[in-house]
Design goal:
This is Copper amine oxidase-like N-terminal domain-containing protein. This protein has 10 helices and 26 strands. By secondary structure, the chain is α/β, with parallel strands linked by helices. The chain folds into 2 domains: about 110 residues, Copper Amine Oxidase, Chain A, domain 1 (2-Layer Sandwich); about 260 residues, TIM Barrel. The strands form 7 sheets. Strands 14, 15, 18, 19, 23 and 26 form a 6-stranded parallel beta sheet that branches. A 5-stranded antiparallel beta sheet has the order 1-3-4-11-10. The chain has a 5-stranded antiparallel beta sheet with strand order 5-6-7-8-9, with helices on one face. It is globular.
Length: about 450
């Protein structure tokens, strides 16, 4: 019996519907088979509804201001600016805005009720805690300070606003601001259907190699390598560095000196160039053990609820006092107990460690609120073997393993040399360094390094 037109139309629609359902089913199973690094993180990500209940006891706005003598400053020409007033707040040096503006041929206009500085190429609007430069908006690291009816701006903010880099000389107590020739990366949005990765600088504190001025500059050079390639990164920060055997206790809230000012300037520089900072304990040590070697939180150390909270809150208070934004917590050596992790979770949504050893290869979400983000690719201990192992893991592209690793930047400094001849930062950076090799691999393999707090279900 011949089909009528209605029967033909119905059969055709049925066929289309069947094909669509089949396609979606296949796509669904393909998605879950390859979701970790190639497709979509949405099943793992958490909503941005976390609110920390703790209010820091120490605030940046309440920190004292003191006048500084004996520290000289040069801008572009290497010649110290005579009689430049300088103040200190929260381990940042500040100079009058009109001094740096005049030196760089900017005009300052305060007639509109807000600060506006400009030259032929740039227009910069300033508020107390933010800036807008040629439509680019950002936060000031040190804020503008009105001291004795004069606006002061921090060295860190001078670097960011005027495309300069500060090179500290601790022995001569001098800061040389020279041209920062790092190229800004192309803007790109985060695509969760693309291959993502995470990288972290580990055990970063103001002790050992980081109290050497040249090494602080080398950290900035590493930062520029990542920034120029559009690669975001993390810094696990130990706020207080203690080495009992050397009678060394560097509390950034009480030890005001040019070394600590240089270190906070490095933190600011990292933040301005794609870095994100988290707490890595408070001292990362206990008893007679040095920072970075021991831990200040485990089943045997600061194990009570009160002791655990004290460690966490001291770190948060220090970050607040220094105006350092923090986005995650990593317990030293991942030694926090299950109960301590629950307490950490009251202060932080993101824990940069595995939930437990059964979930050490990928992100784990709990109760739609907290993310545990592990580092399955491990760390670089042996620069040859471990660097190649991490590169091989990226190249293998195993979808079941999160492409996340960590690296002690003190290892990388041996691959960097620089000079400041002719008021330029002349850099010799060995292309065979671990970080250079990994950056090259990430680019070649098409990975996008992201921040831990970008793992949000938006």
């Amino acid at each position: 019996m011949p089909w009528n037109s209605k029967t033909l139309i119905f059969s055709f629609l049925s066929l289309i519907l069947t094909l669509l359902i089949s396609y979606n089913i296949l796509s669904y199973f393909n998605f879950f088979r390859t979701n970790t690094n190639k497709t979509d993180y949405s099943i793992l990500l958490t909503k941005n509804n976390f609110k920390r209940s703790y209010t820091p006891k120490i605030k940046f706005s309440d920190r004292p201001i003191s006048e500084i003598n004996g520290v000289s400053l040069s801008i572009l020409d290497g010649t110290s600016i005579p009689d430049v007033p300088m103040i200190l707040k929260s381990q940042r040096y500040y100079i009058p805005l009109n001094v740096v503006s005049k030196k760089l041929n900017y005009t300052v206009d305060n007639s509109r009720g807000s600060l506006f500085i400009s030259n032929k190429s740039n227009k910069i609007f300033l508020t107390e805690d933010s800036y807008e430069k040629n439509s680019k908006k950002g936060s000031l690291r040190g804020n503008l300070i009105n001291y004795n009816n004069t606006f002061y701006i921090s060295i860190s903010d001078i670097e960011e606003l005027f495309d300069l880099i500060a090179v500290f000389n601790f022995e001569n107590k001098k800061i040389n601001l020279i041209q920062d020739n790092v190229e800004a990366p192309k803007k790109s949005s985060i695509l969760y259907n693309y291959k993502t990765s995470l990288m972290r600088f580990e055990d970063f504190g103001c002790g050992y190699s980081n109290i050497v001025d040249k090494n602080q500059t080398k950290i900035k050079i590493m930062t520029n390598l990542l920034y120029s390639n559009g690669m975001k990164f993390h810094v696990s920060w130990m706020p207080r560095f203690v080495v009992p055997s050397a009678n060394f206790d560097n509390d950034l809230l009480t030890k005001d000196n040019i070394i600590n000012a240089g270190f906070v300037n490095v933190l600011d520089y990292m933040l301005n160039k794609g870095g994100e900072i988290g707490l890595h304990g408070y001292t990362h040590q206990s008893g007679n053990i040095a920072s970075g070697t021991g831990e200040d939180m485990s089943k045997d150390v600061n194990s009570t609820e009160a002791e655990t909270r004290a460690v966490i809150e001291k770190g948060i208070d220090t970050a607040s006092a220094l105006n350092i934004p923090i986005s995650y917590y990593e317990s030293p050596h991942y030694r926090a107990t299950t109960e301590q992790k629950k307490i950490i979770g009251e202060y932080f949504q993101f824990l940069y460690e595995h939930y437990d050893y059964s979930k050490k290869d990928n992100i784990y979400k709990t109760e739609d609120r907290h993310l545990f983000v592990p580092t399955p690719l491990g760390r670089i201990s042996d620069t040859a073997i471990d660097t190649q192992r991490i590169i091989d893991n990226f190249n293998e592209d195993n979808p079941n393993i999160l492409k996340s690793f960590y690296y002690h930047p003190s290892t990388e400094i041996d691959y960097i040399n620089f000079e400041t001849n002719d008021n330029k930062l002349n850099i010799n950076y060995n292309p065979d360094s671990p970080l250079q090799r990994i950056v090259k691999t990430l680019k070649n393999d098409g990975y996008t390094p992201v921040h831990i707090d970008e793992l949000l279900d938006k």
